[in-house]
């Protein structure tokens, strides 16, 4: 099956394409250009740095970042120092974490 | 745990039965491992979804003697299926013996697993054949004084490869032997080997211990025994002989489909192909050592002798003499009831729940619910409209954990997964039993789902898919003052057309995806007899399922080689064990949903939702009445609580080639779905670029209407998100208007145009 192997996402990401970073920052929910769609697919499928998720604290108001353990029955790791007041802020933060984990280059805000 | 927000999981429970008439009783089975006391309140659910983008949580407290503070305790969940054969003198008196079967292990080498046993762990007494923690076949005997001897084969077994296995004990010498023979011994797969050991001679076996297949007794509660060391995988044609047989002779016993009952050596020859829908296992030997199954393991599965001659167990049961047991099977928690609610005869039918509240000193406030349903009295239908509660869908999706186990969810959503407290609980507590979208720990699909366990996503405040969305419709009916009765789809299954006959109009809700033949036939004959049907969802009438003939609120699903399927069954296992019928899609069973309701599933779109644009047929006098008060150029439902549109999540389209009726009017369509619109696999035969909703106009949701026989008619919206648009702009919107126009006309006895 093609659809459950995190290592199968292999679209190459060009770390110099800061225009794509900007495009994502402007509109995290899209719609996105073809190029950004493929970059996002790589980041989301492979999820470098761990399989990030959000956990709702207050519906529609507050979320905390978490990481799936990759093992059934083990608890979700909660990163309590990372909370968000909007989904867009969370998307941007996770984008930066993954971009850096994959390209080795940090994105400054 | 303190996280901020509301704790929805520190107490959990289930209601039995799941649905009841006024005047009936529902028992509540609760457990908490942290709370000693909770406050109980029965509530009627008008909207169970707290999302501020929708109507918001609306729960109506009901006066009831069960309300008030109540002590609660912890009741554990013990997972794992097995067969239990009560103790008999013939088993107790056994001296030398050989036990064997064909075996298809699915999780060897993870933990000790038992194949056949007459053993109690507490006294280390009896005998057991199994796999040890490293996947080696092992026969152990214990005399109850603590001395345990075991023979262990030299090589570990391979996962998902058939073997013949046997173990023997010679009472005269104390000799123990195990043998395993790989059935496909080439290309590196051969694990044939054996092991010998010396145990005590003349061992006596313990009293009153049942023989267990696929597990062993802990020693507690021997009449309904606690079991441990469950087996994952298939066991085929197990035999027990009272002599020390050579492996060849024992294998011949296991090969035989019809063993000679008069064979003096043969003590038991279980044939799992007898009464596959049932919950017992039958012994073909003269001893009749029949047993009962615990936690509903998968039956109607291929045995070691299956060769593709038949794909339907009814055609060749001899090839289906295996049972697939799982150590995480869970059909019934078996908790004792905490209290029973007598549902007053004057309570309106509807969605109900008990609220369990507490304010622990060291955590977030607890507000947990147990959902149940009150259906309208059969003898006294009150309204002309009925909603059909999709119990089958709720069960199929019960406790889905798939998105945490697979990697695709975020790509499908085009955004981060947002987990709830319920998800956190499910991730850590798989023992509650998962949904038919999930896989067992051994990788096999969950085929059976029942309600005698906490179902986290069938109650107020739960993840919105299905239950929460459906309550948006209830909220709208209440808001508009439209009287409605309530029936369940399981009523359609068990009572047929009688469940619908009292009603002029019925509504199926946001996601009536799982239908048995009986359910379909009831709805179809209702439509053909002048009934009016409003299908207000998407992906409806999709999978063919069965309810269990004896167990209430238990369904079976088989997924085969098409449809949006999150697992795929083994070859030869597409037929339902509960009935023998082919499972899979209704579309593959000669009944595409288009034939019943005009539209059928075509795509998922979880990133954004769309609006419908009116088509010329919406101005046809046969349909124009639906659009009264709606402008000719208005987009319908370009708003809504789920991603901003009424067409979204899972969507359906019309297709004459799949049975959309020639008399149908396609009045509106949402065909600008975007690149998140992913077509269902049965919608394309070869894959190429250009099949997504941005490029392909057939990835769409269609709004249709057609008259049926005797003045009846069908109105379908083809989208799960539809009902979540109803409350937009304080219910003043064109989705609500269109719905009101249709329901008022469908309730008018004058024949539909
Ligand atoms: Fe579905």
TrEMBL record, chain A:
Residues 18-103 form the N,N-dimethylformamidase alpha subunit domain. This is N,N-dimethylformamidase alpha subunit domain-containing protein. It comes from the Bacteria. The lineage of its organism: Bacteria, Pseudomonadati, Pseudomonadota, Alphaproteobacteria, Hyphomicrobiales.
UniProtKB/TrEMBL annotation, chain B:
Residues 299-732 form the N,N-dimethylformamidase beta subunit-like C-terminal domain. InterPro entries: ConA-like_dom_sf, DMFA2_C. This is LamG domain-containing protein. It comes from the Bacteria. It comes from Vineibacter terrae. SUPFAM superfamilies: Concanavalin A-like lectins/glucanases. It holds the Pfam family DMFA2_C.
């Amino acid at each position: 099956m093609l659809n459950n192997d995190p290592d199968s996402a292999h679209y190459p990401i060009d770390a110099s394409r800061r225009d794509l970073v900007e495009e994502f920052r402007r509109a995290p929910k899209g719609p996105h250009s073809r190029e950004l769609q493929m970059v996002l697919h790589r980041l989301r499928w492979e999820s470098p740095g761990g399989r990030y998720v959000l956990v709702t604290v207050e519906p529609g108001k507050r979320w905390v970042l978490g990481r799936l353990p990759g093992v059934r029955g083990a608890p979700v790791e909660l990163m309590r120092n990372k909370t968000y007041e909007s989904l867009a802020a969370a998307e941007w933060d996770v984008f930066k974490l993954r971009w850096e984990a994959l390209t080795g280059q940090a994105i400054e805000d | 745990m303190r996280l901020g927000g509301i704790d929805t999981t520190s107490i959990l429970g289930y209601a039995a039965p799941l649905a009841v008439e006024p005047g009936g009783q529902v028992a509540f089975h609760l457990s908490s491992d942290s709370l000693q006391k909770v406050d109980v309140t029965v509530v009627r659910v008008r909207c169970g979804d707290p999302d501020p983008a929708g109507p918001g949580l609306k729960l109506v407290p009901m006066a009831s003697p069960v309300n008030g503070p109540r002590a609660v305790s912890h009741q554990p969940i013990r997972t794992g299926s097995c067969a239990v054969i009560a103790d008999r003198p013939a088993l107790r008196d056994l001296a030398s013996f050989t036990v064997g079967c064909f075996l298809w292990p699915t999780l060897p080498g993870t933990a000790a697993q038992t194949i056949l046993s007459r053993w109690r762990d507490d006294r280390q007494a009896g005998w057991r054949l199994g796999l040890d923690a490293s996947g080696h076949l092992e026969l152990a005997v214990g005399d109850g004084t603590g001395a345990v001897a075991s023979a262990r084969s030299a090589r570990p077994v391979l996962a998902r490869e058939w073997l013949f296995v046997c173990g023997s004990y010679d009472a005269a010498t104390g000799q123990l032997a195990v043998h395993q023979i790989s059935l496909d011994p080439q290309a590196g797969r051969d694990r044939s080997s054996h092991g010998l050991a010396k145990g005590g001679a003349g061992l006596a076996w313990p009293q009153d211990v049942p023989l267990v297949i696929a597990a062993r007794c802990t020693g507690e509660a021997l009449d309904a025994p606690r079991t441990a060391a469950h087996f994952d995988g298939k066991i085929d044609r197990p035999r027990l002989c009272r002599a020390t047989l050579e492996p060849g002779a024992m294998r011949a016993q296991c090969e035989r489909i019809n063993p000679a009952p008069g064979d003096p050596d043969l003590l038991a020859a279980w044939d799992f192909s007898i009464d596959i829908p049932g919950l017992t296992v039958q012994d073909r030997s003269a001893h009749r050592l029949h047993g009962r199954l615990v936690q509903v393991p998968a039956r109607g599965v291929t045995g070691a002798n299956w060769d593709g001659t038949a794909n339907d167990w009814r055609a060749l049961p001899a090839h289906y003499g295996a049972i697939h047991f799982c150590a995480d099977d869970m059909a019934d928690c078996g908790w004792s009831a905490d209290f029973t609610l007598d549902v007053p005869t004057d309570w309106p039918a509807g969605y109900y729940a008990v609220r369990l509240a507490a304010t622990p000193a060291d955590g977030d406030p607890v507000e947990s619910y147990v959902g149940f349903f009150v259906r309208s009295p059969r003898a006294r239908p009150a309204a002309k409209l009925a909603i059909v509660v999709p119990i089958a869908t709720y069960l199929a999706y019960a406790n889905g954990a798939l998105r945490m186990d697979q990697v695709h969810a975020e790509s499908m959503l085009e955004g981060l997964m947002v987990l709830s407290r319920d998800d956190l609980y499910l991730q850590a507590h798989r023992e509650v039993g998962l949904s038919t979208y999930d896989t067992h720990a051994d990788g096999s699909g969950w085929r059976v789902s029942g309600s005698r366990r906490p179902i986290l996503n069938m109650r107020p405040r739960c993840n919105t898919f299905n239950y929460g969305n459906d309550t948006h419709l209830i909220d709208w009916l209440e808001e508009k003052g439209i009287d409605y009765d309530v029936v369940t789809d399981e009523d359609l299954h068990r009572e047929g057309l009688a469940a619908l006959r009292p009603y002029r109009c019925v509504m199926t809700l946001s996601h009536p995806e799982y239908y048995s033949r009986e359910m379909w036939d009831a709805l179809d004959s209702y439509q053909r007899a002048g009934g009016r049907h409003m299908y207000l969802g998407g992906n409806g009438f999709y999978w063919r399922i069965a309810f269990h003939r004896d167990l209430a609120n238990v369904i079976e699903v088989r997924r085969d080689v098409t449809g949006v399927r999150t697992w795929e069954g083994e070859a030869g296992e597409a037929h339902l064990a509960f009935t023998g019928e082919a499972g899979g899609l209704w579309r593959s069973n000669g009944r595409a949903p288009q034939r019943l309701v005009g539209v059928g599933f075509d795509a998922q779109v979880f990133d954004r939702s769309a609006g419908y644009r009116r088509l010329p047929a919406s101005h046809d006098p046969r349909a124009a009445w639906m659009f009264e008060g709606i402008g000719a150029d208005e987009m319908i439902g370009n708003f809504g609580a789920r991603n901003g549109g009424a067409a979204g999540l899972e969507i359906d389209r019309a297709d004459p080639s799949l049975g959309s009726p020639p008399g149908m009017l396609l009045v509106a369509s949402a065909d600008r779905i975007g690149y998140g619109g992913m077509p269902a696999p049965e919608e394309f035969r070869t894959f190429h670029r250009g099949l997504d909703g941005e490029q392909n106009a057939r990835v769409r949701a269609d709004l249709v209407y057609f008259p049926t026989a005797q003045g009846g008619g069908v109105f379908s919206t083809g989208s799960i998100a539809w009902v979540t648009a109803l409350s937009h702009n304080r219910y003043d919107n064109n989705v609500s208007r269109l719905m009101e126009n249709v329901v008022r006309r469908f309730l008018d006895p004058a024949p539909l145009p």
